[in-house]
UniProtKB/TrEMBL annotation:
Alphabetical keyword list: Metal-binding
InterPro entries: Isoprenoid_synthase_dom_sf (IPR008949), Terpene_synth_N_sf (IPR036965), Terpene_synthase-like (IPR050148), Terpene_synthase_metal-bd (IPR005630), Terpenoid_cyclase/PrenylTrfase (IPR008930)
The keyword ATP-binding is annotated on this UniProt entry: no
Protein name listed in UniProt: Terpene synthase metal-binding domain-containing protein
Example GO BP: terpenoid biosynthetic process
Recorded GO MF terms: magnesium ion binding; terpene synthase activity
Domain of life: Eukaryota
Residue span, Terpene synthase metal-binding domain: 89-285
């Protein structure tokens, strides 16, 4: 792989590949490998590439365009339904700190299940991981450790009465989660899907992973090894939850779901990659935010000095 990449980069740099469709494809592959591209996004790109080929088959091209347009219309209909659901929750009025990532989550789930027959599965995945994103904000950025503990206990109880022991902002959210999951379980049952119980199990497990990570961060006062960090943080990246929930909504066998939940080697490897990529991206964003905060601090500082006529002596 490294050998091929090195030679392709050299060929592009030395312009040994003449301007052509091939050159465009090589540059695209060097920028983002094929396995990292969402298949439907790549399909749209390749339609444009195929149009430029002199050997193209017009019937195949027309069918490809029609297929893409039909699926795009289906995705838009899913987003319409999801938007109505999201606005109906009114979470922004109670959880102003939480990120609104519903559309982003739907796009992510297209990378998991893009086929038209899994439309409802995509909706379930999107709702599930929209909640996961909010749980992440609560555990990671907003709640105290005690509030996190209470929320985790309430999730394990899975009972509306457990909401009475929660802080106000999590009480409202908790009830919305239970109500949404109840509808999902009912819908899956009506479709003959026997795995509705796994939706609840996976959501509870995700909150426990977040709590374990929050507790570890709060109580750990010494530097840790990479191995210890990954032992705690790998489960909270929720890659296992993506795969197992996808298994559940498409009606895979219980053996496959249970196997995935045991973190076999292939699952743990995927989770580890997901965690490391997430940490790298988070570090870059945090580093940029610190630079911005520092810039604003110095601007305010010098404005204060200027306003009150204070001379800064270095």
């Amino acid at each position: 792989m490294a050998y091929a990449k090195d030679h392709l980069e050299r060929a592009v740099e030395q312009q040994t590949i003449p301007p052509s469709i091939l050159l465009d494809q090589v540059r695209r592959a060097l920028e983002t490998p094929l396995f990292r591209r969402p298949r439907r996004v790549e399909a749209r790109h390749f339609i444009s590439v195929y149009e430029r080929m002199s050997t193209r088959n017009e019937a195949i091209l027309e069918l490809a365009k029609l297929d893409f347009s039909i699926l795009q219309a289906l995705y838009c209909e899913e987003l319409r339904a999801l938007t109505l659901w999201w606005e109906g929750l009114q979470l922004q009025d109670h959880l102003s700190f939480a990120r609104d990532r519903m559309v982003e989550m739907h796009f992510w789930m297209l990378g998991v299940l893009f086929e038209p027959q899994y439309s409802y599965g995509r909706i379930v995945l999107t709702k599930f991981f929209t909640f996961i994103s909010i749980f992440d904000d609560i555990y990671d950025s907003y709640s105290t450790l005690e509030e996190s503990r209470l929320l985790t206990m309430a999730m394990e109880r899975w009972d509306e009465q457990a909401a009475e022991h929660l802080p106000g902002y999590t009480k409202f959210f908790y009830r919305k989660v239970l109500a949404t999951m109840k509808v999902i379980e009912k819908d899956l049952d009506s479709q003959g899907n026997k795995h509705a119980d796994y939706v609840k199990k996976l959501l509870i497990d995700a909150t426990k992973c977040y709590y374990n990570e929050a507790k570890w961060c709060e109580e750990s006062d010494t530097p840790v090894t990479v191995e210890e960090h990954l032992r705690i943080s790998v489960p909270s990246c929720c890659c296992m939850h993506v795969a197992c929930l996808a298994f559940s909504v498409i009606g895979a066998g219980r053996d496959a779901i249970e196997w995935g939940m045991t973190y076999p080697k292939i699952m743990r490897a995927s989770c580890t990659i997901g965690r490391v990529i997430n940490d790298v991206a988070s570090h870059e964003v945090t580093h940029l935010q610190l630079k911005i905060y520092a810039m604003f601090y110095f601007i305010c500082f010098f404005q204060f000095m200027d306003k009150f006529g204070i001379l800064l002596v270095l």
